Amino acid sequence: MKTLLSRAIFGACLGAMSAITAIADEVILTHDKAFYSTFLQAVGDVCGFKEQAYTPPEQFKAFVQSSIASGQTPEMFTWWSGATFRDEMVATGQIAQLDDLWAELIANGSFTAASADPFTVDGHKYALPLAFNKWVMFYNPTLFAKAGITGEPKTWDEMMADADTLKAAGITPFVATNQDGWRGFIWFEEIMIRLSPEKYLGLFDGTTSYSDPVVHQAFQMWSDMYAKGYFSDPRSNQEVVDFAGGGGAMNLMGDWAVGLLTQAGMEVGKTLDAFVVPNVSADTPAGMIYEASPLMISVEAAKNPAVMDAMRCWASDEGATVWANTSGLFMGNLNAPAPNAIVPKINKFSIDNNAALYSRWWEGVPADLQGDSVAAFASFMLNPTMEQADKVIAQVTGLHDAYWAEHK
Amino acid sequence: MTLQTTALSEDDTAIIARLKRPSFAGIDRVQRRRQFWIAMLFLAPAVILTTFVLLAPILFNVWLSFTKWKKFTGLDQFAGLANYTNLLNNPQFGEASTNAVIWVTASLVLPVGLGLIFALSLRGLPFENTLKTIIFLPRVIAPTSIGVIWFYVYAPKGLLNAGIEAVSGAPVDIGWLYQDNTIMASIVVTYLWQNVGLVMVLLLLGLAAIPKDPIEAARMDGATPWQVFVHIVLPLLLPTLLVVSMLSIIAGFGAFDLLWVMGLGYPGRRTLSLSVYMYFEGFSKGSWAYAAAIAVVLGAITLVVTWAQAWLQVRADGLKG
């Protein structure tokens, strides 16, 4: 009996040790996109990593920053591109350079050299693309047809006329949301690039003040749209459900949303399509907002062959194909199939019109200014009057002017 | 009064003489020293844990608040009182402090008041234990889950608005968690729902410890129930009330989860309380030294309140005695 018991204990200890070793050997991809968990794990099954989600983004940021501060940088994780990528990640010295891997990927024709631009700091490449997305206006062709609208708007005025037609037909033209507390800047940035891309880009380095008349005009247009009843209730935190359920005929989102929308029951070509938002003035060059999501590894993890294999596999034709087929996202691998009919359509528009790509406001502005400013924009969405807009403009102008006075 | 003395017997004198001999005194010292080290051995885990897990991080945090530590740099740069000066000059800190005071006051007065009413009124009712269990039940749910549940109760198309609509017959569109004038009250109600059960249980324990004799004597003397409550029950319950109040105040200052989860869509979420403001500055903006200064202020306020409570406790114990 005693022998049996001791063998059982020994067996249990051995089992536990094996399990611990297995966990220790497993490559973990940490991210904040819980809605991608299934898709990420599908690639992980092929490439040998396990996904682990932290949500919402605020908690994820806290986790990553405290991990880096304590010398325990996650081995493989996602982040945002732009100023926060440069100032909060690469500047720590904890992010591995991936110059050699990028050289392989460019040499074998999987990626263009330009694909690495959003992840390049001082000539070195620090991330692979999780996704390279463009922000477009999704619309529901069935609801358009119901309102008697044929075709997509080619000018801003046509888009507003369509909104009027939809409203008259009892259909809310646009979905609005403050989901997860960060959506406040989406319409602001879109209206800004449709008015003046130069002024928009100036917000990133302080050359444009938020007291600029163009900013005021953007808020005026936004406020007018609310006043005309073009938007759904911005207090909803179910953006995808609202749009897929017919709560609005159009919704401004990144093309990363195709997978989520089709999962929610929309069908590309039938109830779901997209167009690039037209400019307010015909003189403004064609352009659109892009969002590049970096996938990084720590300096320590780069020494682990299993992590490097997982990264290589991620960007491979096989990894990119699984990613495209499951998530509906385009990561930039030219050999992977188009994830859906919308991505090539938008890419064609981009090529045909020689469209410029502008960073999202979130990635473009200094990280110090993101939280307070986006909260101010959100307060406008909840009270979309010009009185509130003036308060928001004054508040954000103060924040940004103070920052640039110190950081010029 | 005369001091009575008793003469020592011969045996007593002999024992004292033996104890005073050098060899016995040495044994005593050795024993005492050994007992001291044994006591130290038993105390060691607690001392080590308290030192390294509690005191050292607190001191480290105080030191951090005097540095320029921000996003992985500046840890070695001394900032003097700059972080504290910035705090005092920042209107967001003032807003967060005001909200913290409102939050702490509400989370103290309401649970203690309602908990006392429940504790007094439920005694002797049919299904007393079932009712107490139902009131206590929310306490066992994680605050984050409670926040998520109530987020949907307060949603514009949520349960609360639907209920008001059903009663009033008119359409209701209140964004309880989006408006300056409703968000704090909404979260306080949720906090009350979650915590009143615990306060009630603690007060029930206090009530059970009150001796029956003075109450019965007062009743026999013709005191009304209100007079019995005000002049006998309440003074005897005061020490328990002080403990409950102190726990509520500390919990109020430290409250984060409910405010964070339920304030998700509220633009002013970062200033809902000092703890939320500290989290935002520390983990969202990466202003770690500044957040450390907020933590020091928060800790100091809690310490002062706790000291005040301890002082009152001593006075209350004196009254009871």
Would you give an account of this structure?
The complex is a heterodimer of chains A (408) and B (321). Chain A has helices at 2-25, 37-47, 57-69, 83-89, 99-107, 141-146, 156-168, 185-195, 197-205, 213-227, 239-244, 257-263, 305-315, 317-327, 342-352, 361-364, 367-382, 386-407, and strands spanning 28-31, 50-53, 76-78, 120-121, 124-125, 128-139, 250-254, 273-275, 287-297, 356-359. Chain A is α/β, with parallel strands linked by helices. In chain A, the strands form two sheets. In chain A, strands 1, 2, 3, 6, 7, 8, 9 and 10 form an eight-stranded mixed beta sheet that branches. In chain A, strands 4-5 form a two-stranded antiparallel ribbon. Mean pLDDT of chain A is 91; it is low at 17-23. By secondary structure, chain B is mainly alpha-helical. Chain B has helices spanning 10-19, 22-64, 82-89, 91-121, 128-136, 143-153, 159-168, 183-208, 212-220, 225-254, 257-262, 274-284, 288-320. In chain B, helix 10 (225-254) runs antiparallel to helix 13. Chain B is flat. Classes of the chains: A alpha/beta (408), B mainly alpha (321). At the A-B interface, helix 3 and helix 17 of A face helix 12 of B.
